[in-house]
Design brief:
Elements (H helix, E strand, L loop, with lengths): L1 H8 L32 E5 L2 E9 L5 E10 L3 E5 L10 H6 L3
Antiparallel strand pairs: 1-4, 2-3
Bound molecules: zinc ion.
Length: about 100
């Protein structure tokens, strides 16, 4: 009985945690962590990054940031945010799907 009641009111509740409606077909090429099944949160780690920042000094001696440039010299890794498994094998796919 309670379940019938829930089914009646649930569709009217907002679902702030879901950006996509559940009834959309999920693409077959979604990345899923083989270790823990996580398919939502991923961390990209850049090794050996050189960050160059141009500042101009103002009349009062303070500085204003003019230009910010970062250059990745090392590898880019993809890490599961849940279990920290190395998912770098999926990184090229990740980069393709980055918008
Ligand atoms: Zn994982």
């Amino acid at each position: 009985m309670a379940r019938t009641h829930l089914n009646l009111i649930l569709p009217q509740l907002p679902k702030p945690d879901h950006l996509q409606p559940n009834d959309l077909p999920s693409p077959a090429n979604r990345i899923v962590c083989p270790e823990c099944g996580n398919d939502e949160d991923f961390v990209e780690v850049a090794e050996n990054v050189v960050i160059t920042t141009l500042y101009t000094q103002n009349l009062d001696g303070s500085f204003t940031l003019e230009e910010d440039d970062s250059q990745v010299l090392g590898a880019l890794k993809l890490i599961c945010a849940q279990c920290e498994a190395d998912l770098s094998q999926f990184h090229s796919r990740f980069a393709e799907m980055l918008f």
